[in-house]
Amino acid sequence: MTQDLEHVEEHIRACIVVFLSLLVLTGLTVWASYLEVPAPAAITIALCIAATKGTMVGLYFMHLISEKKLIYFALGMTVFFFLGLILLPVLGVHDIIRLLITKSY
Amino acid sequence: MSVVIPHIYEPRQDTGLTNAKLGIWLFLASEVMLFGGLFSAYVILRINNPLWQTWASILSVPLATFNTFLLITSSITVVLGWASLILKKDFKRYRFYMILTLLCGIGFMVVKYFEYTAKFHHGLFPSSNPFMAVYFTLTGLHGLHVLGGMAVLAYYCWPGSYLWKTNPVWFTQRVECAGLFWHLVDLVWIFLFPTLYLM
Asked: Around A104, how many Cα atoms within 13 Å sit in the side-chain half-sphere?
């Protein structure tokens, strides 16, 4: 029981560090948006920082760092279908299937 | 023949999880798919659209940055509120942190109100162009989730807090589940903010 409370106390200290990091990363995101870089690079930088922030929120605020396997499995399925949601329409716009079959647009 | 399914709040032996924890994560997974579909629509509408940056330039980055700080702060106050129940068994401290969370949520919605009314004042509506359609749909749906989360947190602060006296373990689990939903709302905004305002 004491070990559980110590674990929770450690977790709370980690959450406070994560909170401060999120504030810094938010400032970094805004700063990076004003850099004079090509659009693909700007989008990549912004999404990488957002993914880092999202991962920190998920791992620490949402306790995913110490969750059970069933939750990881459910989230793994979610990520798979989420990527499908984002990628399949993009593949439709660029018509990869036609490209593969005809080797040209 | 009637069957009574008992309500339990101990973890199940087969999954190691409480029913509530599994239930809320499955719900959050469905919410990810909901917003995922809308982000997918954003990608489709934005690809090869030369006017997108022009349409997006009317948004206020400082206001949205302030909103991001509010939501991040509200996430840590939710965690500290839950910790007050687990570590200190201090309900007043928990309520203090929940009130801070609610104030952050109210602040977020006030800023959104000013943003929306400014758009309307300038004749910008969801039907004005694809960017405004995506902006109002995504932020509007997110705003509804903020309001829903605030309603749940307020419920557990006041009318629903009776359970703390009769079954503190069950009450703490309920607060944890509500907190998970609130963190997802923050997570969605973490991606919405750069997508709409910065890219």
From this structure: 0
Chain B residues interacting with chain A (CB cutoff of 8 angstroms): 15-17, 21-22, 25-26, 29, 32-33, 36-37, 39-40, 43-44, 47, 61, 65, 68-69, 72-73, 75-76, 78-80, 83, 86-87, 179-180, 183-184, 186-187, 190-191, 193-195, 198-199
Chain A, chain B: beta-carbon pairs less than 8 Å apart: 112
Choose among A49, A71, A89: nearest Cβ to B40: A89
Q: Contact B187/B34 with Cβ under 8 angstroms?
A: no
Alpha helices (H) in chain B, listed in sequence order = 19-46, 52-56, 61-83, 91-121, 130-157, 163-166, 168-192
Dist CA B82 CA A14 (whole Å): 15
Nearest to A82 among B32, B69, B72 (CB): B32
Contacts of B104 (CB under 8 A, 6+ apart): B70, B71, B73, B74, B77
Query: Closest to B190 (Cβ–Cβ): which among A57, A70, A81?
Result: A57
Please report residues of A whose CB lies closer than 8 A to that of B80. Answer: 12
pLDDT digits (tens, 9 = 90+) for B9-66: 788 888 888 889 999 999 999 999 999 999 999 988 998 788 998 898 999 999 999 9
ipTM over 0.85 threshold: yes
Taking the C-alpha atoms of residue B191 and residue A53, their distance in angstroms, rounded to an integer, is 9
**pTM for this entry:** 0.92
**Interface touch B16/A15, C-beta < 8 Å:** no
